[in-house]
Amino acid sequence: MARRLRLDEAVDLYLDHLKVERGLARLTIDAYGRDLARFLVHLTGRGREDVDDITPADVTDFLIGLAEAGLAARSRARTLVAVRGLCKHMVAERWLEADPSQLIDAPRTARRLPGVLGEDAVARLISQPPDTNRGRRDAAMIELAYASGLRVSELVGLPMADVNLHQGFVRVTGKGNKTRLVPIHGVALTRLSRYIEDDRPGFVRDPKERALFLTERGGPMTRQAFWKLLRGYALRADVRLPSGGVSPHKLRHSFATHLVEHDADLRAVQAMLGHADIATTQIYTHVGQARMIEQARKHPRAR
């Protein structure tokens, strides 16, 4: 028999579980907390106090209410993920006997293709930084971001100890503290080697500093600073996207799309990106197909 537990206590325990046992990022846990706080307001408004008071109708009506309030399908789907996670956890902990969310389908969402830079645009972008200490650092960062598909937090947080120039790879600690090895070679490896050997020492203020990429003050590069310098180089190179400005995440999308377009194995791309689910990586096959269709339309016989 499942023991009775207050709903607010169950939510707090679940969020602690996500933090301590699942190792999810702070921002992800905060998002779950906001979604579940909204769910709690809905439940308490119906007089629900304990976890075993929840019914499937409560979850269904909650989602209907979100739709009627004008919340986008993508946001409703994300909220349902949080609710389902809570319900599954309560069943696993034997606080609840049956999952009230298991028969509810996620709202249909349109799959938006991420903004992708062409290979020529990437080359123009990387050629913008000047041949100075700072410029070579910036070029090495942009080149590594594109050549490895690292998330911006992974890029700026990369320590010197996790770069192996001799073997040609970087060791990356991503979401959930999971570690993966990402190979780097060719121009990216050359630029990175030159920065480490010739330019990084000029940025060092504290010999104990472990970060790979440093600012002029000797501290680790920040996400905001890298985003700003990338945007500046994109403007100089006249590189634009219909979906918005150039960002570190667009470089990551471009890395994956170009690999798929050059017939890279999807499982290998998944491993390099650090995706837990192959379905997340499969969007890049659609991007590749969309770009092929666009190119085919330029054929003389297609006009």
Radius of gyration: 23 Å
Number of structural units classed as domains: 2
Largest sheet: 3 strands, antiparallel
Roughly what is the average pLDDT, rounded to an integer?
85
Label the structural class: mainly alpha
Overview of the molecule:
Mean pLDDT is 85; it is low at 298-303. The protein has 2 domains: 7-92, Tyrosine recombinase, N-terminal domain (DNA polymerase, domain 1, Orthogonal Bundle), CATH 1.10.150; 119-296, Intergrase catalytic core (hpI Integrase, Chain A, Orthogonal Bundle), CATH 1.10.443. β2 (169-173) and β3 (179-183) form a beta hairpin. It is elongated, with a radius of gyration of 23 Å. The chain is built from 13 helices and 3 strands; from the N terminus they run αααααααβββαααααα. It is 56% helix and 4% strand. It has helices at 7-20, 26-45, 56-68, 73-92, 119-126, 133-148, 152-156, 186-203, 223-237, 248-261, 266-273, 278-281, 283-296, and strands at residues 163-164, 169-173, 179-183. It has a 3-stranded antiparallel β-sheet with strand order 1-2-3. It has 303 residues and is mainly alpha-helical. α6 crosses α10. The longest helix has 20 residues, at 26-45. It starts with 6 loop residues before the first helix and ends in a 7-residue tail after the last helix.
Give the structure's gist in a few sentences.
This protein has 303 residues and is mainly alpha-helical. Helices cover 56% and strands 4% of the residues. The protein has helices spanning 7-20, 26-45, 56-68, 73-92, 119-126, 133-148, 152-156, 186-203, 223-237, 248-261, 266-273, 278-281, 283-296, and strands spanning 163-164, 169-173, 179-183.
